[in-house]
Amino acid sequence: MNLEKCHNQSDLRKAAQKRLPSPIFNYIDGGSDDEWTLKRNTLAFDDYELLPRYLRDVDQVDLKTHVLGTTLDLPIFLSPTGMSRLFHHHREIAVARAAEKYGTLYSLSTLGTASIEEIAKVSSGPKMFQIYILKDRELTLEFTQRCKDSDYDVMCLTVDTALAGNRERDLVSGFTMPPRFSLASLWSFVTHPYWTMHLALNPDFELKNVAHRVDAIGKRGTVSLINYLNEQLDRTVTWDDAAWLAEQWGGPFVIKGLQTAEDAKRAVDAGASAIMISNHGGRQLESVPAPVDCIVPIREAVGDSLELIVDGGVRRGTHIIKALALGANACSTGRGYLYGLSAGGQKGVERALELYRSELLRDMALLGCTKISDINAEFIRKVAGN
Fold first, then answer.
1. Closest CA to 273 of 156, 105, 375, 146
2. Where are the domains of the chain?
3. Which end of the chain is more exposed for a tag (fewer CB within 10 A), N or C?
4. Distance between CA 353 and CA 337 in Å, rounded?
5. Average pLDDT of span 310-332
6. Looking at residue 228, what is its pLDDT?
7. What is the dihedral sign for C-alpha 104, 110, 113, 118?
8. Per mean pLDDT, which range of 63-77, 202-216, 276-290 is the poorest?
9. 242 — phi, psi (to 5°)?
10. Average pLDDT rounded to a whole number, residues 49-53
11. Which of 63-72, 126-135, 353-362 has the lowest mean pLDDT?
12. Largest Cα–Cα separation, the chain
C-alpha cells in the first residue's frame, strides 16, 4: 500500500478500511449507541476559529513541549488502545517504535497484545502504562511494580469503563476476540487476504499482561482472558482508590476519562499530575461533551495545578493548535494512529505522525507562532453563533 498517497488522517482511515475485514474495521471505527458523541468529538473543533498574527519571523518552528515529566518532540502522543494485534501482526511493538522515532510518548494498554516488558525492550522512548483498579488489587500492584522495573515514565488510570459501552456495530458484525469466521463475516475475511493470511501465520492474540492469571478462574484461551478482565473491573472504585494508586506509583500520574471541572478538582486532591479529557473515543456513555469543549471550564477550575491532555477527535494540526490555545498542554490520539497501523504497520503509524508533524509546522508558521509556548487564548475565538 502506497502510504505516500495518504495526505491526511481521513485517507489513512480509508486505507485501513481497505486492508481490514469489516468486523475488525468497525471495531476501530465505531462508537456507542447512535455514535453522536463519536462524531461530535471531531466536529466540535469546527466551533472555534484561529486568529493569526502576521509579519513575524517564523523561519524556525519548534514543536517540542514538556508534559508528563518529559520533553516530547511533538505536542501529541499515542493514547492507550487495546489489542493492537487485531489491526496488524506487528502489534503494539510497531506503534512503540514509531513513537520513539518521532520523539513522542507511547501508551500501552492493560489489554495489550504486547507485554510491559516487551515494549520496554523495543523502545527507549517515553512510555506510559494504562491501568485499571481491579478487584484483584495484587494484580494492580503487580502492574505497578512491573512498570517501575521496566522504567516506564507515567501511570495512567482509566476511570470511564466500569462496564463496556453499547457498541452496536460490534453486535451487528459479530466481532469476537480472537476473530472468528461466521457466515455473516466470512466473505469479508476472504476479500481481505493480506490480513487473513497473517491471521493464519501469526494467530497469537493473547493479552500478554494478564495471560499468566488465567488459572485464577480455571479457563483457557484468549476469550477467557477477556472475560477474566471484565470480571475483575471493580465498579466500587472511588477517589480514595485513585489516591491509593497514585501513592503506590509515586511518579507522574494521569487520570483518563474526566470531562467536568468538579472531577478535575477531585483529581488534584487524589494526587494526579495530569488528566486526559476523554470520553473514550465516543465508545462509552453517549451524549457527553466533546473533549475540546471541556478545556476552558476545567482550566478555569484547576489553574496550573494539572496538565490537561485532550484525547478525542484530533485529526488535524489545527485541532492540536486549537486545543493548546484553549488551555491544553498537549493532545493524544488513538484512532489517528490505529488507522495508520492497520494500513501499513510501523510505517503507517509513522505516516500518521508525520502528517500531524508537517501540518503543525505549517499551521504554526501561518499562525505566527514559532514555539508551542507561544500559543495562547489570543489566537482563538468561538465561531459566532456557537
1. 156
2. 3-366
3. C
4. 8
5. 98
6. 63
7. positive
8. 202-216
9. -60, -45
10. 98
11. 126-135
12. 69
Angle at which helix 22-29 crosses helix 9-19, to 10 degrees, equals: 150
Model pLDDT, residue 372:
98
Rounded-to-integer distance, Cα 302 and Cα 125, Å: 30
Question: What distance in Å separates the CA atoms of residue 178 and residue 159, rounded to the nearest whole number?
Answer: 25
How far is CA 226 from each of CA 199, 205, 281, 296, rounded to the nearest angstrom? 19, 11, 20, 37
Q: Among all residues, which ones are annotated catalytic?
A: 280
- Measured CA to CA, the distance from residue 326 to residue 182 in angstroms comes to 47
Helix (H, G, I), strand (E, B) or coil at 127: strand
Q: Report whether 330 contacts 73 (CB < 8 A).
A: no
DSSP state of 215: G
170 vs 46 pLDDT, higher one: 46
Helices (H), 239-334: 239-249, 261-269, 291-302, 317-326
Instruction: Give the integer Cα–Cα distance in Å for 220 and 211.
Output: 9
H-helix or E-strand spanning residue 380: strand 380-382
Q: Indicate the residue type of 84.
A: S
Give 265-311 pLDDT, tens digit per residue. Answer: 999 999 999 999 999 999 999 999 999 999 999 999 999 999 999 99
CB atoms within 10 A of CB 141: 13
User: Which homologous superfamily does the CATH classification assign to the domain defined by 3-366?
Assistant: Aldolase class I (3.20.20.70)
Four-point Cα dihedral 348, 350, 355, 358, nearest 10: -160
Q: What is the pLDDT of residue 373?
A: 96
What are φ and ψ of residue 150, in 5° steps? -100, 10
Provide the 8-state DSSP code for 1: -
For residue 110, what is its C-alpha cell? Answer: 492493560
Q: In 10 A of CB 107, how many CB atoms?
A: 29
Q: Are 125 and 99 in contact (CB under 8 A)?
A: yes
For 42, 116, 250, 368, 370, the CA distances from 64, given in Å and listed in that order, are 24, 26, 25, 16, 10
Alpha helices in the chain (DSSP H): 9-19, 22-29, 36-43, 91-101, 116-122, 137-149, 168-173, 186-190, 193-201, 222-232, 239-249, 261-269, 291-302, 317-326, 335-367
